[in-house]
Amino acid sequence: MSIEAINEQLLRAIGVGVALVDLENLSFPFRNDTFNEWFGEPDPSTKLSDLFPDLDAQTLRADMHSGGRMTTEASFKLRRRTMTVALEFNLAQNASENIAVLVCQNITRIKELESMIDSYSMMVERNTHEIKREKEQVEKLLLNMMPRAAYEEYKTFGVVSPRLFDPVSVLALDFIGFDEQLAQHEPGVIVSELNDIYSAFDRIGAQFSCQRIRTNGDSYVAVSGVPDPNQDHAMAVANSCVRFLRYLVRRNESHPIQWTARIGVASGSVIGSVVGSQNYIYDVFGPTVGAALHHRSIADDMTIATDTAFADSVTEKFGAEASKDGTHVLMRDLAENA
Predict the structure, then answer these.
(1) pLDDT band at 276 (very low <50, low <70, confident <90, very high)
(2) Cβ of 186: how many Cβ atoms within 10 Å?
(3) Residue 13 has pLDDT above 80, yes or no
(4) Beta carbons within 8 Å of 324's beta carbon, 6+ residues apart
(5) Orientation of helix 187-207 relative to helix 233-254, angle to 10°
(6) Bond preceding residue 167 cis, omega within 30 of 0
(7) Cis peptide before 227, with omega less than 30 degrees from 0?
(8) What are the two backbone dihedrals, phi and then psi, of residue 17, each rounded to the nearest 5 degrees?
(9) Which of 105, 132, 180, 199 is the most buried (most CB within 10 A)?
(10) Which residues does the UniProt record annotate as the domain Guanylate cyclase (predicted)?
(11) Which residues are CB-neighbours of 36 under 8 A, at least 6 positions away?
(12) Would the pLDDT of 306 be above 60?
């Protein structure tokens, strides 16, 4: 057996599609068995463009003339399955005819793996985005339940250590006739009203470094000096509660539901911490909170009740007058009455 015959048998036996391409008429002088298995039995009339319609013959000839090599890929249907092959054309050396050797390697599995990797990467990216979004929602929810400093401590250490804050000022507000409002309006209307009012209170408090700690129905409690110290905590609370009442007055002028509030304020020390293990929330405790709640309970409609000590601490801007029963003082805005 000649060397040429041995080479031909080897070419027919390997799992790579091999064919010779006549660059003049793009016919196939030779095709091995694997090539025939992929592209059909040999037919003298079959041209390169018949098997690879997307292949540019002029580009092929140009590449063969300039560098003697060209690579590309092609996909085709093989028994209802899409198959992708890598095509490599090399100009035959020492050939009397203008012949290129075409080698086709099955890269279908590689393409499938690349597609799987791309899908997996997209899924990981989508899941990462979803986790990030959920993390932001959890962070936003926690920041609604505790100050940012407490949240940062909780995120780092898993707990929020109880701390004594001294001095601070506490503001406690509720609405006169809240039970009657509940009886007269649908629950959704009341919730919408409270959401609107409390959101406005939050914005006003933020202007004066006075942060809401908790709400319980019509009870709104805010504090200045927790967790970040504030030397002007009394003035911050006084400014906030005065503007709370102004906001309600203006709101009542244009809204069908009228709200009447009363406010108690006090200065002193509080303990701040997260309470609860399942439904935890940041809260403040201590006699100062109790004093603010007490002043609120005896305040008149749309007034701010406090003690003499608190009123004296903000006397530069706010005046005070004794209540009728002499148990507390009513604070007023000097600028407003001037």
Answers:
(1) confident
(2) 9
(3) no
(4) none
(5) 140
(6) yes
(7) yes
(8) -75, 125
(9) 105
(10) 169-296
(11) 42
(12) yes
Rounded to the nearest integer, the mean pLDDT of the chain is 88
Q: Can you read off the two tokens belonging to residue 64?
A: 């063969």
Q: What does 8-24 look like in DSSP terms, one character per residue?
A: HHHHHHSSSEEEEEETT
Inter-CA distances, 14 with 18, 89, 111, Å: 9, 18, 22
The pairing of beta strand 318-322 with beta strand 211-216 = unpaired
- Residue whose structure tokens are 């025939």: 36
Q: How far is CA 156 from CA 86, 128, 149, 153, 160, in A?
A: 54, 21, 11, 5, 10
| Alpha-carbon 125 to chain mean position | 13
Q: Copy the structure tokens of residue 182.
A: 């509940």
b/e per residue, 54-77, with b = 16+ CB within 10 A? ebeeeebbebbeeeeebebeeeee
Residues 159-171: tens digit of each pLDDT:
888 899 999 999 9
8 Å CB contact between 263 and 303: yes
Phi, psi of 252, deg, nearest 5: -65, -25
> What contacts 126, CB < 8 A, 6 or more positions away?
none
Angstrom CA distances, 29 to 60, 69, 219, 338, stand at 17, 19, 93, 108
Instruction: Pull the structure tokens for residue 115.
Output: 């597609």
At residue 142, the pLDDT reads 82
Contacts of 239 (CB under 8 A, 6+ apart): 208, 210, 317
The pairing of strands 30-31 and 81-91 is: unpaired
Is residue 327 over pLDDT 50? yes
Q: Which residues contact 184 (CB under 8 A, 6 or more apart)?
A: none
